[in-house]
Structure formats: structure tokens, C-alpha cells
Amino acid sequence: MAEPFLIGDAMTGGYGAGPDILHSCTIAVDPGQIAVIVGPNGAGKSTGMKAVFGMLNLREGSVRLDGEDITHLTPQERVVKGMGFVPQTQNIFTSMSVEENLEMGAFIRRDNIRETMEQVYDLFPILRDKRHQAAGELSGGQRQQVAVGRALMTKPKVLMLDEPTAGVSPIVMDELFDRIIEVARTGIPILMVEQNARQALEIADRGYVLVQGRNAYTGSGQELLADPEVRKSFLGG
Amino acid sequence: MDQTRNILYFVGIAALIIITGMVQSWNSALLILNMGLISAVMALGVNLQWGFAGLFNVGVMGFVALGGLAAVLVSTDPVSEAWNAGGLRILFALAVGVGIIGATIIAYRRITATRPRVIAMVTILGLGFFAYRALLDPAVEAVEAVNPALQGNLGGLDLPIILAWPVGGLFAAGAAWIIGKAALGLRSDYLAIATLGISEIIIAILKNEDWLARGVKNVIGLDRPVPKEIDLQESAEFIERASGLGLDPVTASALFVKLNYALLFSVVLIILLIMAQLSLKSPWGRMMRAIRDNETAAAAMGKNVTNRHLQIFILGSAVCGIAGAMMTTLDGQLTPGSYQPLRFTFLIWVMVIVGGSGNNFGAVLGGFLIWFLWVQVEPMSQYLVTFLTAGMAEGNAVRLHMMESVAYMRLLTMGLVLLLVLRFSPRGLIPEK
Amino acid sequence: MDFINGLVVLMNFVLIPATAYGAQLALGALGVTLIYGILRFSNFAHGDTMAFGTMITVLVTWWLQSMGISFGPLPTALLALPFGIAATATLLLLTDRGVYQFYRTQKAKPVILVIVSMGVMFVMNGVVRIIIGVDDQRFSDGERFIFAVREFKAATGLREGMALKTTQGITVITALIVVIALFWFLNKTRTGKSMRAYADNEDLALLSGINPERVVAVTWIIVAALATIAGVLYGLDKSFKPFTYFQLLLPIFASAIVGGLGSPLGAIAGGFVVAYSEVTITYAWKKVLKYWMPEALEPSTLMQLLSTEYKFAVSFMILIVVLLFKPTGLFKGKAY
Predict the structure, then answer these.
(1) CATH 3.30.450 is the classification of domain B2-78+155-424
(2) B contact chains, 3+ CB pairs < 8 A
(3) Mean pLDDT throughout C75-82?
(4) Does residue C204 belong to the interface with chain A, where contact is any CB pair within 8 Å?
(5) Domain assignment of residue A125, given as a range
(6) Quick one: which H or E segment has residue A61?
(7) Per mean pLDDT, which range of B3-7, B251-255, C215-219, C298-302 is the poorest?
(8) Which partner from C25, C192, C193, C235 sits 20 to 30 angstroms from C265, CA to CA?
(9) Does one domain contain both A144 and A162?
(10) What ipTM was reported for this prediction?
């Protein structure tokens, strides 16, 4: 099998000097794909993604992006390499306007960002309407759109989302997922941690079920949805 | 190990003081000892607030000044003429003032709709203020007109001055309660600024309200809890004992009086230290430190953090008030002009940080050590500057300037000491266990 | 009832001085609020920073004056101002490198930084006193008045006169220029926006590739400029005495807190609120009321709410009221 575009390979490690949370965990995604990480609470889903982003102390394993080994780069350096990361909480500048948030998202770029900004507004039309409003005044779902838009401003090679639908209503969740699919259609691979396993797996090309920091089940979204073991454990039958 | 090292620290300080006695004079040494004892008590109070609860009180001087006020109000003779002229009217006006504030608070609590509430409060305060002034001003004028050169104030209760010490603690506790209610439970910076403000106000009141304590005209000749030097010098028995020790009556009386003070202050310090140590080890003390270390966890467990902080804030300030009364007793006079709001407060903080924040013995050690340095830095830097400028001509501008600047060196040195200790040895000499 | 004359007295003794004072407090509070918003601590050394900046400006002014250089009707101190700012900026950057940076990397609690700033305050205080001494220093020159009482009376024929000192005019104009420049910088430039982003959400700002050390350095430089300008304007208006700058700490902090710590707009509003309150509450209204009240109601006492000795009590009371009822201030600052 060809080397995946982004792969966190057999990662083992924990926070700082603490105990290992991940045990030989592997996560990968290819261009145009949506890869989803699901699992029970405390399974290490967010930790797995943070490990790919460089926020964890990896004792074993490596992370490779587009063939390049980035295991020893800091998160900021990985952003420069083309990783976009949307944290779960506090992921926007609440006191700044929507447009300023997007500008800050593109901070490392020195070229003209207007075209990218227009693309983001095309993807998230509601943001164009509210571009001059303070981001903190928007609704939960809209704030998440600002957060994703902010990450897209660097024209990342891969987009990583940490529980993007946390705390939003089901209708907003559907809309967010629609948007995420649109983003994937532009060719950017997406790696996503999700609590709402069923809905996430439905749109996933690849799914990773983590249990206690290990890969428990891996397969396409549809495969995992159909798997009786997976359904029994995490999807409520 | 630790115990030995700590004991050695205290022995070291004692040695420094004794050396001062031998090299300079026993008088100076005892002066240092007495102020050191008082500083140690203040440091103890501040350490209670900082070490137990992480509270940053920048207004220590205000609480100390209240202690000094207590000394005047408790021990001086009442000026009956002033009382007749307007004393009761002043008290009445003050009571009215308190009543107005009370009424405002009641209005705040009872009226819930915003607009009527604000209107009510503003009206009460506005009219109340004018009523208060209408009552107070003429009374104050009358009192201050009574023998302004020597009195012009109401005087006190003519009780033994030693009672002023706990009373000073009470005054300080009262002020601390007011400030604490307003400023605790908010960010630590707010408390710092609020305490700075209250100390400025307290000192401004002392300086301006002549009817209270003569303002900047000062109250001198306060009663003593120890014998007066003059009395000793005239007592035949004392003269005999003094010459037996090879001392003339004047020196002997001075030393004897200071030793007496030292004894009294030491007793107070030891009592407070024992109480502080006991409370440290008690469940209450442990809870306080648990709150300090993780406020959110403590609050989640149902501890009312703000109330606990208020308790500590009041206790620590009360201790400072006691020290203030002691200090004014030692000085024998109340000079509001000498209370520099920040300078002395800052010194106490250096004492706490250098000595060891969170440790009662550390605070006491810091009190002695820093006070010693504070007193001795000036002659030492005088010596240093003379040495450095020895080569220059007598009227050299640089030399003159440096000699004048010696006085300001002290603060700079203390600032550097604080910064260095905070950076390289933040737990201080005797760290918290 | 003589409205115009009363108004003239009011303007001369209350409105004009309060506006100038408010502008000075606003500049001081801006410095404090920037440090709070971006560096996340209350800088007790700000007053003595102002003293330092003013001191350097005073020394350079004296030097310029001794060389016969002047600025025409304007005070020579304005020419010396850039030197003062440069020196103060250097001092603040060095202090940050030598003192504060350590605690930043340690992620120390904000209260530790406040205590440290108190130590810095005393070192600065000592340095200033050693260099220039503690006495009053006069360094203003140029035209004293834009128009004096005599000229006003002659021009209007009124009984009461009003004067506008050059320093008061300069204060307001300079403050206006500085505020506009600052707001333009914070809202329209890339660096300014990155500073606001850093103040808003430090982690996200770092993630966006914003360089924290650069933000910190620019902050200190701006603060140096604000502090020096505020100090010089205050010193020109009154006189330069190192001790007074420490006393300004309380009103400046009160202004910043009233406006909302961390909000530049709040700092400006707060500055004027505090200044106007201080002046109006300690002013003897007898004269104005004599002009405005009908004969029967003319006051016999001074009608001074609080004696000028209690000037600082006013800032303090405002502060307490704000803390009791709205700790986040008028413009909803941050409260970490």
C-alpha cells in the first residue's frame, strides 16, 4: 500500500513525564479523505490527534507528512509545514471580528490572502454576512465555522479537527458535517476526532476506533458501522 | 539539618545585634532589637495573609497607623473642654454617617428594580452626606478651637497604654473587614490596589482630622508601660545599682527602659508566634493552605473560599494593628506624617519573602534580618561612598552628589534584594514545610 | 444670577484643569491596561516608569536649553521627548529580559509578577532619586499661556477671567494624537492585531504563528512611550517631583479598573471619569453657586464636598464602588 499522506505510525507516549496514554497507535489519512477517530470516553482520541500535531511526548513511533518525518517538530513548526489544527475549545479570538479571525489564521502567510478569504466565505456563507461582527457574539455553530475557517486560511495540506460538533445541537451538527464534506471535496484530507460516532462514521472514508490508547478496530466508515462488535460497544446496537 | 540551620540563622542575627552593641553602642543595638521585634510581628501578620491564603496586602501601613491611633485614643487624657464644646456632636454626626451607609445598603438589598434602587441609593447618599457634614463641620470646628497649640483634639480614655495594643488590633480588624468585603473574591491585583487605597485614606484621615489625633501637629508625650528615664535617674536606688555595674545613670536608664520594652515586645511576639504555629498545624490551617493551593478544587468541595480569605485577612491585619500600637508606644508619639504608605509596607514584604513566605519562623527571622540591614545599610553605604570617592577633591560635584544619594541607596538595595531573592531563592531562608 | 460669569469660573477652575488631568490619567491608564491585557499582570512600577521617562526628558531639556535650542512658543521638552521615550523603552526592555521574562517562562501566578513589579518599582525609584534628587524641578519654557486671564477679560469684558495654559492645550492635543495613533496601530496594522490576538487567546495566537517575544517587546516599547508622554505632560503642567508619580499610581489604576482592565477605550473613559470626579468633588463650589443661585440660596460655606487633602480618597471610592458593583469595569475588561 502506498505511504499515506499523513500518518502517525505506532505512536506510544504521554503528556510530559507522565505515563503512556497511547500504545502503538496508528492513524493515517489520504488526500481527499475524511478520517475519523472514535471511541469511548478516555480512549485517547484527542490525545491521538494531539500526538499527530506534536503536543505529546512521543516515546516510540513517528509522524510523517507528505513523506517528510515531522516527529521532532513543534506544533508551530508543523503549522508552517501545512498542518491546520482546530482545538476543541477556545478556538477563536472572541474579541476580534470574524474577518480579523481569518486574518490571524493566515498570520504566517505574507502573500495576498484575499483569494483564500473569499474561498472560506464561499464555503461558509454565513461568515460573509457577519464578517465585521465580533466572533464571540456568534452562535455555537457559527463560532465553529469561524474556527474551521481560521485554520483553512493557511491553505493547509491537512486539516485536523478536535470534536468539532461538541456542544452543538443536532441540526447544527448536520450542517457542520455538510461543511466538512465540502472542505474535503476541495482535496484537503481531514482528520477528525468525534464523540458522535455514528454520524461521524457515516461520512468517514476511514475510521479508527481507539480503546485505552490502542487501535481496536480500523476500516472504512461503512465497514465499522456494519461491524456487529463495533455497533454493540459504541453505537448502541 | 534543617532545625540546626534555622537555629543558626537566629543565632546569627543575635550575634549581629550583639556585635552592633559592642562596635557602635548598646543603645543602638537595643533600638534595633526593639524595632526588629515590632517588624517581626508585622511580618508575622503579613505572612499569615500571604503564606496561608496567598493574599497580597499592600496597605500594611494603614493598619499599622490604626494601631498608632488606638494608642492615642486609649491612653491620652480626655480634653473635657473639647468634649463639652463638640465631642458628643461629633460622635452623633459619625453615628449618622454610619446610619446613612446602613440605609444605603438596606435600600440596595430591599429594592430590586434597578432604576428605583439607584435613585434611592443616590438620594440617600446625597442628602445624607449633606446632613452629615452639616452636623460634623461645626462640631469639629468647635473642638479644634479648644487650645489648638497643645490640644485641639478630643483626647482619649486615659487607660493604660498597654490596652491600646489589642485595641489597635481591633481597629485594624474593623478596617480589614470593610476592605475585605469589597475587594476579596476578586482578582489578587484588585486586592492589592484596594489595600493601597485604604492605607492612603487612613493616613490622610489621621493627617487631616485634627480633632481625632491632632493631625500633623502630632501627639507627643504618650504614657509608657515602662518607667521613664527621668524617674529612674532621680531614683537613688537605681543610681546605686547602675554604678555597681559601672554605668552612669543616664546611660543606664536608657538601656533599662529599652530592655523593658524588649521584654514586653518579646512576650507579645512569642504569644502571637505560638498562636500562629498552633493554627498552622490545626485542621483550620491545613484547610486554608489547601484552599490556597487549589482554589477551584476547594470551592468545588463546598468551602466558602471568600469567607476563609476574609478571616485570614482580618487576622493578619489585626496582628499588624497590634504591632502599630506597639510601635507608637515605643516612639512615645504619634506622627502621621511619618507613615509613608508604601515604603514601610514594601519593607515588610521584603522581610516576609526573604525570611521565608509561608513559614512563621521565617517571617520572624526576616523581620529581624531586614530591619537590621535597613538600619545598617546607610552607615555602611556612607562608608562605602567615602571610600570610593576618597580620591576626589572635596568640592567635587560627583562626590557631593553621591554623598547625598546615600540616603536613597537603601530603597534601591532593598528592591534589589527582593528581586534577587524572588528570582534565585523564592522560598526564602526558612521555607514553608 | 449671572450664568456666564459662573460658567467662566467653572471652566477655569474645574473643566479645563479636569480635562487636562483626565488626558494625563488616560495616557497613564492606557499603559497599565496594555500591560495587563498582554502581559497579564498589574504593573506597580508604572508610576516610577513615568518618573524615569520624565527625568530623562528633563535632563535632555536642560541640555538643549543650555545650548540655546528652543522650540519657540512650545516647551523645549517636546523636542527632548523622543530621547526620553528611547531611554525608557531601553530600560523596560532590559527589565523585561532581566526580570519578568523568567516568570513568564515559568508561567508563574500573576500575583508573583505584581510582587516582582513592586521590587522593580523601588529600584527605579531609587535610580531616579539618585540621578536627579527628590526636589521639585522646573523644566517648562516657552509661552506660558495660550490666552491669559487678562486677555480674556479684555476681550470679553466679563468680570471673571479664564486662562488656558499652553501646557493644558498641549496635553489635550498630544493625548488626542497618541490615542488616535494607538488605536490605528491596534486595529489596522498586522502587528497591532497580533497583539490583540495574543491578549485575547494566548494559546491560539501561538498556534497561529504569532511570535510571543515580539509581541512582548512591542508592548513594552509602546508602554514606554505612553508612560513618558504622560509623565512629561504632567510634569510640564505641574512640576517634576519624583514622589508625585508614585502617588499617581492609585488614580491611574482606578481609571484602568473603572474602564475595564485590558480595554484601551476603557482606560481613556476611566481616566476622565476619575479626573472629573476628583476635581469636582474637591472643588469649592461657593463661587460658582454664588453666580448661579438666586440670592436667597447663596451658600455661606465653601461648599467643598471633600478637602483637597482627600483627593486620592476620591479615586479610591470610585474604585471601591466599581469593585462592588461591576468589577469588569465599564467596557468589560478581562479578569483572569
Answers:
(1) no
(2) C
(3) 89
(4) yes
(5) 89-155
(6) strand A57-65
(7) C298-302
(8) C235
(9) no
(10) 0.86
